[in-house]
Amino acid sequence: MLEKLIKKYNIPVPRYTSYPTVPYWGEYNPDVESWKNRLKDSFIKSNNSEGISLYLHLPFCESLCTYCACNKIITRNHHVEERYIDYLIKEWLLYLEIIEEKPIIRQIHLGGGTPSFFSPKNLEILIDRLLEYCEVHAEHEFSFEAHPGNTTREHLESLYKKGFTRVSFGVQDFDIEVQQIINRIQTKEQVIELTEIAREIGYDSINFDLIYGLPKQKLSSIEQTFDIISEIKPDRIAYYSYAHVPWKTKGQRLFSEEDLPSNIFKRELYEYGKKRLLELSYSDIGMDHFSLKDDKLYESQLNKKLHRNFMGYNSSNTILLIGLGVSSISDSLTAYAQNAKTTKEYYESLDNGKLPLIRTYMLDEEDQVLRQAIKDITCKRELNLDEKILHIFPDLLSTDLVDMEREGLIKIENKRLTITDLGMVFLRNIASIFDKKLRDSNTGDKFSKSI
């Protein structure tokens, strides 16, 4: 039965860190004034309560990880750090001019690229300069992504002093053959040592990113990886499906389809990993995320306060997310804005005193209804099929949802949709039923396959 469902639903669909998803935001012609107005409205609504979130994209990496589809710049020249920090602060000051008040910062996430590319001293300088104009929320959550191959005790200590209590280590796989083909090498000993150091310093949530479906990956690879996971027991695991999108990233052209596990075997790798995680007392949060039951992520899911945005799942539900740096995306709840993707364009815009935006999207009323519907599915595992949704999709209860209920992916009682445990495997597919942009277009092939 599962094999049949995988065959049916292993199709390209978004990961739903937003709705509408980025490919439907239209031309690269930003409506800057409308973005500023919606940004300010969201700031006024959020700043005196939950505060705001900041995402900083630090794009530099010393070497190319061939599996990676992120926006990155490969260089060993660390002189780029100071200049990039200066421009991040230039951009932040432009936003402070727009909002005209001292912001309360609830969440900061340093993503990449490789944030640990930056020296500990420069990371301290960045956070000091960023927070110079702000207040910090009493229940703040500051986090960063780190490469085990270049992260040091000094990195962990420096950021902890600045309020960071969460770190995500990009492990991917412990099998050396897999590490070699994806050019992402770190030893078991390195990862264990860093985890122990982080715990000793005081980090209260440590995440490992793992990927299934990588080239040369075998069942023995995953068995080895989860044997090591059972020794370390990080607080969270993100067990991602490898997204093979060679048309987007040249690195993935360095290996062929023949190097990749088949679709069925790829799913077996996931099911094995999930089984081990459940045996180790991790809870399935959704969209390939797992956490121990004493972690805030589990608590948020339990209390139906889980949030999902461009930083993935998190427990800090803020209305406003401001993205700083190349390719960063900002989200004001009713609008999105995307930054320039190259440092050249990014620097030029800021030198001219302009926000470095390349496009924006203003959500209309229908977009906002569907955004919330998809968020309820991906975060709460349930959705009230109210009049607004049924007005948009009048045949919903007699078409797609009928098949999914018969297949055991969902239950519908009194117009309330609930995701089953089996349905969690196909969460992206269930969410896509409410993606009107995807349904009305022929651009589904822009996304990775759901399984």
- Mean pLDDT equals 92
- The CATH topology assignment of the largest domain is pyruvate-formate lyase- activating enzyme
The CATH superfamily title of the largest domain: tm_1862 like domain
So what's the overall shape?
Answer: globular
The overall strand count is: 19
Q: Compute the CA-based radius of gyration.
A: 21 Å
**Structural domain count:** 2
Strands across the major sheet, in which order? 9-10-8-7-6-5-4-1-13
Q: What is the CATH architecture assignment of the largest domain?
A: Alpha-Beta Horseshoe
Number of helices: 16
Q: Please mark out the parts with pLDDT under 50 across 5 or more consecutive residues, or reply none.
A: none
Fraction in beta strands? 15-25%
Helicity range: 25-40%
CATH class bucket of the largest domain: Alpha Beta
Structural class: alpha/beta
User: The biggest beta sheet, please?
Assistant: 9 strands, mixed
Termini separation (Å)?
15 Å
Give a brief rundown of this model.
The protein is an alpha/beta fold. It folds into two domains: 1-19 and 364-442, Orthogonal Bundle (Arc Repressor Mutant, subunit A), CATH 1.10.10; 21-331, pyruvate-formate lyase- activating enzyme.
Helix and strand layout, with pairings?
Elements lengths: L1 H8 L22 H15 L5 E7 L1 E2 L11 E2 L5 H20 L4 E9 L7 H12 L3 E12 L6 H9 L2 E9 L3 H7 L5 H14 L3 E8 L6 H14 L3 E6 L21 H17 L2 E5 L2 E4 L3 H7 L4 E3 L2 E3 L6 E4 L4 E3 L3 E5 L3 H9 L5 E6 L2 H16 L1 E3 L2 H6 L7 H7 L3 E4 L2 E4 L7 H6 L3 H4 L12
Parallel strand pairs: 1-4, 1-13, 2-3, 4-5, 5-6, 6-7, 7-8
Antiparallel strand pairs: 8-10, 9-10, 11-12, 14-15, 15-16, 17-19, 18-19
